[in-house]
Structure formats: structure tokens, C-alpha cells
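Lab notebook, bench 4. The sequencing result for the construct came back, and we need a structural model before the next group meeting so we can plan mutations. Quick request posted to the team channel:

Model the 3D structure of this chain.
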Amino acid sequence: MATKHEQILSYIKKLEIGHKISVRQIAKALQVSEGTAYRAIKDAENQGYVSTIERVGTIRIEKKDKGNIEKLTYAEVVNVVDGQVLGGREGLYKTLNRFVIGAMKLEAMMRYVDAGGLLIVGNRDNVHEIALRAGMGVLITGGFDAEESVKKLADELKLPLISTSYDTFTVATKINRAIYDQLIKKEILHVSDILIPIEDTDFLYGDDKVGKWHEMNRKTTHSRYPVIDKDMKVQGIVTSKDIIGEDVNNRIEQVMTRNPMVVNPTTSVAAAAHNMIWEGIECLPVVDDIHKLLGIITRQDVLKAMQMVQQQPQVGETIEDLIEAQLTDCSKRNNELYQFDVTPQMTNYLGTLSYGVVSSIVTTVGRRVLNKQRKGDLVVENVTLYFLKPVQIESTIEIQPKILEITRRYGKIDIEMYHKGVVVCKAFLIVQFIDRY
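Done. Here's the predicted structure in C-alpha cell form:
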């Protein structure tokens, strides 16, 4: 039987897109406490089924997949620009295709006005009406209001009419930043992208006998299975090591490993990989917020996913991407040497190279050096940094890495950074290689 939390989530998912919901309304409709309703609504928001907007409330929205994650909904625009919704609240869930800045004459603007977009404009009442009738949402900058007739039109057409105190340039910058951040998120692989769904997952119940494990092992050739209860919640995991020497009539719950490590669908593949390597785990159960089994991921799936990401062209650049692009390999024969230019975005508020960037430079250099010796994936296990002198903005630093030890499983590197021949930083790096099993 479904829990109250699951019942609320199911109820929310069945609501019409654009429907406004509240904690009190959910609690009354399903006869649950307001605390239970609040937690379920927050979970639905995390899953992308609802969106909360200041001064508007929480509305049911259409969940976006990774194919259109770079497109924003009008609800997200309201939050990005700290806006106030003047009209058309029922259309906040809609996705906008593009935005147009209306800093031009009306005749020229009409060439860019089309349905599904967002017009960013000042206090031009006639333009507001024309854009709405063309199927565009309107964002009024400078904190200006709109005519009552325009607000009524927005409500009739269910197209958002939004006001913000920011100027046009700031608004455009904020929206571009939001789209750019979404692009970066689109590139990050999550467990949900690679999990083997529950329909294709082999599992055992706690009251199954050890003999059932042997039957499944002969059938599937797998040696690890999640163990669940009657509500599909993960209770443990059972492996070949657990059943060695056990009587076939013993119950699985007597031999299984309890409280196993699990991951959520929103966990990044990189984080899952680190946990699997660190703990020596071949298979991880994937669960939802109430510990219900959704599927599993294996080490082989994780490796394939990480290698696929490395082969994809980058769309949204992260700080790691910028560091990778600015790092120049100046190595000669057995002498490893790299150069790096300190740009403004790599500095802290004092104008010196930030600690976080130095850490990223060290790990990037270490990865490059080790990949020359041994191709494959690796996980950084430990970084020790010693700052000796600050590095000013627009300086060029030289990085000299030295491999101290490299084995089948581990690599240890000593790294020194120089500015004008003077040591400014020393680092010690330990990594663990990811092997295929």
C-alpha cells in the first residue's frame, strides 16, 4: 500500500498543468497533516513537478526533460528577475522559446514578435498589448506598472505579464546567466540517466531462502542483489560472500548486509563513482526519498557514462573547463612543465589567485600527468596544499609536477608552482585509478 507521501505525490502529478496548490489545500483534500503535505510538495518541487513563486504561490508545471532543460518557464523568469506578476498567472507554467528586447521602433519590433517568446520592454502600453495579442509574454523593466486593460488581456490570454525593478541590461544578463547555468546542468550526468530500472532489476525479499539466491545466480550470473521488504523499500544487499557456507534454507535477511550504501536519482554519476571506488562496491541500489527501490547502477555503467561525457563537446563552460583551456603543456622529454595565466575570474576579492582555483589547477595537472603514464579514469582521493606567497591577477605561473609513485591502484604526485622563478605553492596529490572488474 502506498504511503501518505506517495499518495500526495501521485495526487500532485495528476493535477492539471497550471493548477495552483497549497499546503492547506493538499492537507484538507487528502486528510493528512500540513507537515506531511509540506514535505511532499517540496519533494515534488525538487522533482520538477511544481514551482514556487514569491507573491504568487506554488503551481503545477510541466516537468522538463534534459532535451529542453535550457529553456526557461515564465515562472523561472519571475524568480530570476525578482519579478511581480501583474497578470496571466495561469500561463506561468509555459516554456518560452526566446526573449526579445524591445528597444526599437514598433515597426522594427514587429519582425521579432511571435508566439511563445518573452518581450522585455519598458513602460510602452501599446507594445504590451500588441505582444500579448501575438502570443508573447511581457516583462516590464524599470519597476513600471501596466494599464488595467492590459492586465485583463493577459489574464484572458493566459500569458504572463511581469514587472521587475531591474533595468533591461540587467534583466537580459540575469536571464542569459540562468540559461547558461541550465546548459551546464544539462551536461552533468545523474544516476537517473544510467540506472537499470526496477522492471529490469533482479532483487530478493528478506524472507526468501538462500536457495533462491543460488537459483537467481544460475539464471542471471549476477552475484549481488538488493534485498527489499513488501513495500519495495531497501533493507540490505546480499552478495556471494554473504552466502558462502550458509544453509540453503536460511532466510536472506539473516545473511544480508544491512543498511547498504544507496544513491538517489539526482546524485551525480561522478559522486556515485567516487563512493563506489572508495568503498569497493560493484553495485548500488537507487532509491527515492522514502527508500523505495527504483533500480540499480553498476560500476560498468558508471565507467561507460564517465567515458561518454569526456567524449562529448562542451556547451556550457564551468570553471574546470576554463582552467583546462588555459593550461598550456610546455613539457620537454622527461621534464613535465605547465603554464597558467591568472585571469580576473580566477581571483578572490583581494585580486589574488583563489584557493579553489589552485586546487582545481593541481587536480587538472595531476590528471594530465598520470594519463600520460596510464590511460583510464581516476578519482582524486586527497589534495594537500601549501600556500607560500599570493599570486596577483594577470600573472603567469609555471607548474612542475613530479610523479612520486604509481601502482595499479594508486598514483602520488608532488606539484610545485612558480612565479618569476619563486615557489608560490606546493601540493601533494593522491589519486585512485578506476579498474574494470
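The chain has four domains: 4-54, 74-187, 192-307, 319-433.
Will bring this to the meeting.
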